[in-house]
């Protein structure tokens, strides 16, 4: 009898849970065929609220880059709405994540000459930044001596919604306005377009003049991310709608899905919104993600997006761990408090107990009796790096050595720690732990060496920077390129301290951050300069100029390295290379793309007309003869061959280049074939004139499976370049084998 009663109770609880789930409202984004609107309704809003949902549940109405609305609906209501013949798609709102000074010079920008001079520092261009908002009073955002704002739309706060957060926001820690309570948005905005700010530093680190890539460009800031809540698709889509109506020229979005997960383009509001912007001539720069060095971790994969990975710059903030036996281990730190002054303290590694949370120095995991008065070794991962130091401090520790795991390798980023702390690479961490294991009475100190410039080699591909291949369509190489994204100094909010922790009461005008979030606005600012210097260039032409002129070598004139492995980096790591604006201003040739080219690509990957309409807004018809996705006129070439194939196989690609340099120019091809691969180009010479500005060519890639040896990433790499004596227009070539579908 008792067991039967338990069964009944269990079934009753299950039924209640199911009913509750059916009645729990969530945010859904609804794509509507607006041509179906009955004429009786004066606006789409009236139609949506009369036919699909109640006025109180509507969060956003989309009318520019996307046609439809977002609303709070139960799963049952969403399923019911989807049955309506005018509804093309419905998808649940998703939470996304932020992909969290010497860098302008490091890009090849020089005062009073080159691209800064040619573009007047971007003074007639508007950059739209989708992020956590802005702290407008910072010196980096001064409008002193700037002329009138370029022709823009009406200002509004419509894109500062928080529709994705059911129940609203916590106004004790967040502003219900575009003001920045987090700091990330202030940092990215000033990286793209910060004015000159003298005597800038983060508590003495990186002191000098802080400036953005396009110091005179104007900013339109759209708050789509909220402190402790993330960024929601419904708000991001509303920001795209608003930014296009505001007539911005460039959009910078340092946001992604995280964990290397990418949705199909028709279910990805960043891809959908970006298409609407790019189709109207707006350049969209996006961060590649921070899940490197894992392969296939790159996000923001749509071919109309410019996807940016991160590299280091030639500035670092070294610190040393010195053991009592005199051995010294190099690391980094932005600690600015009272130094240890060489005093030795006992070492302890909580992880030797085998308790994972203790090895990671998670909240409440440390025994004060074990760590009091000692320097604690903490493993990186699972919690913010700076939060681990706070845990050590609460437990009575005097310092921290933050040790990378194997997944992070030797990649290091500086942090403004609240206690004396130093981050070290995986190898150094293992050696320190090994010394402690054999010498239980070991002691150590940490020496902080401030700011060091002229670091070589630089750039190297940041360990955290997300890597290719493209997980959706490997025919398109992603990331497109890399830009400075490690230890970047830029403006900061007044609302929180440099670590962002509640316990951090420090105030700083500038902060130093790392991430592809920091790399993305470098490319956004670069696009603003190029748009200003070349107003007639399309977003694809601007991206092409950056990619075909990108650098492959570091400041030691050697091929770029991968920070995590210390081996040579590849196009899966850096795309076309590292942004070099000195050359991008005059690329010679560009690979241009139109809206029709992107539609052909969507047809090629077998999206149907209704699915494509979700992205393009207007109805399309795919050609009878299916195009090939690899023939999208992209500035890189990825040749995919079926794995398991034997003998000789060939693939031929078509590309079209537009001359944007001297009118009468002759280019000859230079081929660096991938190892074990034959590459031929026809014709081998391109002759341009006043009449002939665009020319096409064919690339044939041939492999012999018996002699093809792929590297650890499953590919081999080469390039083709068009050379006229002044310009080198370079495209990477990737050859790989994939399992047939």
Automatic annotation (TrEMBL):
<dbReference type="InterPro" id="IPR037045">
    <property type="entry name" value="S8pro/Inhibitor_I9_sf"/>
</dbReference>
<dbReference type="InterPro" id="IPR015500">
    <property type="entry name" value="Peptidase_S8_subtilisin-rel"/>
</dbReference>
<keyword id="KW-0325">Glycoprotein</keyword>
<feature type="domain" description="Peptidase S8/S53">
    <location>
        <begin position="122"/>
        <end position="558"/>
    </location>
</feature>
<dbReference type="Pfam" id="PF05922">
    <property type="entry name" value="Inhibitor_I9"/>
</dbReference>
<feature type="active site" description="Charge relay system">
    <location>
        <position position="184"/>
    </location>
</feature>
<dbReference type="InterPro" id="IPR041469">
    <property type="entry name" value="Subtilisin-like_FN3"/>
</dbReference>
<dbReference type="Pfam" id="PF17766">
    <property type="entry name" value="fn3_6"/>
</dbReference>
<dbReference type="GO" id="GO:0006508">
    <property type="term" value="P:proteolysis"/>
</dbReference>
<comment type="similarity">
    <text>Belongs to the peptidase S8 family.</text>
</comment>
<feature type="domain" description="Subtilisin-like protease fibronectin type-III">
    <location>
        <begin position="631"/>
        <end position="735"/>
    </location>
</feature>
<protein>
    <submittedName>
        <fullName>Subtilisin-like protease SBT1.6</fullName>
    </submittedName>
</protein>
<feature type="signal peptide">
    <location>
        <begin position="1"/>
        <end position="21"/>
    </location>
</feature>
<keyword id="KW-0732">Signal</keyword>
<dbReference type="InterPro" id="IPR023828">
    <property type="entry name" value="Peptidase_S8_Ser-AS"/>
</dbReference>
<dbReference type="InterPro" id="IPR000209">
    <property type="entry name" value="Peptidase_S8/S53_dom"/>
</dbReference>
<dbReference type="InterPro" id="IPR010259">
    <property type="entry name" value="S8pro/Inhibitor_I9"/>
</dbReference>
<dbReference type="InterPro" id="IPR003137">
    <property type="entry name" value="PA_domain"/>
</dbReference>
<dbReference type="GO" id="GO:0004252">
    <property type="term" value="F:serine-type endopeptidase activity"/>
</dbReference>
<keyword id="KW-0720">Serine protease</keyword>
<dbReference type="Pfam" id="PF00082">
    <property type="entry name" value="Peptidase_S8"/>
</dbReference>
<dbReference type="InterPro" id="IPR034197">
    <property type="entry name" value="Peptidases_S8_3"/>
</dbReference>
<dbReference type="InterPro" id="IPR045051">
    <property type="entry name" value="SBT"/>
</dbReference>
<feature type="domain" description="PA">
    <location>
        <begin position="345"/>
        <end position="432"/>
    </location>
</feature>
<feature type="domain" description="Inhibitor I9">
    <location>
        <begin position="27"/>
        <end position="99"/>
    </location>
</feature>
<feature type="active site" description="Charge relay system">
    <location>
        <position position="517"/>
    </location>
</feature>
<feature type="active site" description="Charge relay system">
    <location>
        <position position="131"/>
    </location>
</feature>
<dbReference type="InterPro" id="IPR036852">
    <property type="entry name" value="Peptidase_S8/S53_dom_sf"/>
</dbReference>
<dbReference type="Pfam" id="PF02225">
    <property type="entry name" value="PA"/>
</dbReference>
<dbReference type="InterPro" id="IPR046450">
    <property type="entry name" value="PA_dom_sf"/>
</dbReference>
<keyword id="KW-0645">Protease</keyword>
<keyword id="KW-0378">Hydrolase</keyword>
């Amino acid at each position: 009898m008792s067991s039967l009663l338990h069964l009944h109770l269990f079934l009753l609880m299950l039924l209640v849970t199911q009913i509750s789930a059916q009645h729990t409202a969530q945010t859904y984004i609804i794509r509507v065929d607006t041509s179906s609107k009955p004429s009786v309704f004066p606006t789409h809003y009236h139609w949506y609220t009369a036919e699909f949902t109640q006025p109180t549940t509507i969060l956003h109405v989309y009318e520019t880059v996307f046609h439809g609305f977002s609303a709070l609906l139960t799963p049952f209501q969403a399923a019911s709405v989807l049955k309506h013949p005018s509804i093309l798609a419905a998808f649940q709102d998703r939470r996304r994540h932020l992909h969290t000074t010497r860098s302008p010079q490091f890009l090849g920008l020089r005062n009073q000459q080159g691209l800064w001079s040619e573009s007047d520092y971007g003074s007639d261009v508007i950059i739209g930044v989708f992020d956590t908002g802005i702290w407008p009073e910072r010196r980096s955002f001064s409008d002193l001596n700037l002329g009138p704002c370029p022709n823009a739309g009406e200002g509004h706060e419509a894109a500062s919604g928080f529709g994705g957060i059911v129940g609203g926001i916590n106004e004790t820690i967040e502003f219900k306005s575009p003001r920045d309570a987090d700091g990330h948005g202030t940092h990215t905005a000033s990286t793209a377009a910060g004015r000159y700010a003298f005597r800038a530093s983060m508590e003495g680190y990186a002191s000098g003049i802080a400036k953005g890539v396009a110091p005179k460009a104007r900013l339109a800031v759209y708050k789509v991310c909220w402190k402790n809540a993330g960024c929601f698709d419904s708000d991001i889509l509303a920001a795209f709608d608003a930014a296009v109506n505001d007539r911005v020229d460039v959009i910078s979005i340092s946001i992604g899905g995280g964990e290397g997960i990418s949705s199909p383009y028709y279910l990805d509001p960043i891809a959908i919104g970006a298409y609407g912007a790019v189709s109207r001539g707006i350049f969209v720069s996006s961060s590649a993600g921070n899940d490197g060095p894992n392969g296939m971790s790159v996000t923001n994969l749509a071919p109309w997006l410019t996807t940016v990975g991160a590299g280091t710059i030639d500035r670092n903030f070294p610190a040393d761990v010195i053991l009592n036996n005199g051995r010294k281990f190099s690391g980094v730190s932005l600690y600015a408090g009272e130094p240890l002054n060489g005093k030795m303290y006992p070492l302890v590694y909580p992880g030797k107990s085998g308790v994972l949370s203790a090895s990671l120095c998670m909240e409440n995991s440390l025994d004060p009796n074990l760590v009091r008065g000692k320097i604690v070794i903490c493993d990186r991962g699972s919690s913010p790096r700076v939060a681990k130091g706070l845990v050590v401090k609460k437990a009575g520790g005097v310092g921290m050595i933050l040790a990378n795991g194997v997944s992070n390798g030797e990649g290091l980023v500086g942090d403004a720690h609240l206690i004396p702390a130093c981050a070290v690479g995986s190898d150094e961490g293992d050696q320190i732990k090994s010394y402690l294991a054999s010498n239980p009475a070991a002691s150590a100190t940490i020496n902080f060496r401030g700011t060091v410039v002229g670091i070589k080699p630089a750039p190297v591909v940041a360990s955290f920077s997300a890597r290719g291949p493209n997980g959706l369509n490997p025919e398109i190489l992603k990331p497109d390129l890399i830009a400075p994204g490690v230890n970047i100094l830029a403006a900061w909010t007044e609302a929180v301290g440099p670590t962002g922790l509640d316990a951090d009461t420090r105030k700083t005008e500038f902060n130093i951050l790392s991430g592809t979030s920091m790399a993305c606005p470098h490319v956004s600012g670069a696009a603003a300069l190029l748009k200003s210097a070349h107003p007639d260039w399309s977003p694809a032409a601007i991206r092409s100029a950056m990619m075909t002129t990108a650098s492959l070598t570091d400041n030691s004139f050697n091929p770029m390295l991968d920070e995590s492995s210390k081996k040579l980096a590849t196009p899966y790591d850096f795309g076309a290379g590292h942004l070099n604006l000195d050359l991008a201003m005059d690329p010679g040739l560009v690979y241009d793309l139109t809206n029709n080219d992107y539609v052909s690509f969507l047809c090629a990957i077998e999206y149907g007309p209704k699915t494509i309409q979700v992205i393009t807004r207007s109805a399309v018809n795919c050609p009878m003869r299916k195009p090939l996705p690899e023939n999208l006129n992209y500035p890189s070439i990825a040749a995919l061959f079926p794995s398991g194939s034997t003998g000789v196989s060939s693939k031929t690609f078509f590309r079209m280049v537009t001359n944007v340099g001297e009118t009468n120019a002759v280019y000859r091809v230079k081929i660096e074939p991938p190892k074990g691969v034959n590459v031929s180009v026809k014709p081998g010479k391109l002759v341009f004139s006043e009449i002939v500005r665009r020319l096409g060519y064919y690339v044939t890639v041939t492999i012999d499976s018996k002699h093809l040896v792929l590297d650890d990433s499953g590919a081999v790499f080469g390039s083709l370049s068009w050379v006229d004596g002044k310009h080198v227009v370079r495209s990477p070539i990737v050859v790989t084998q994939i399992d047939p579908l």
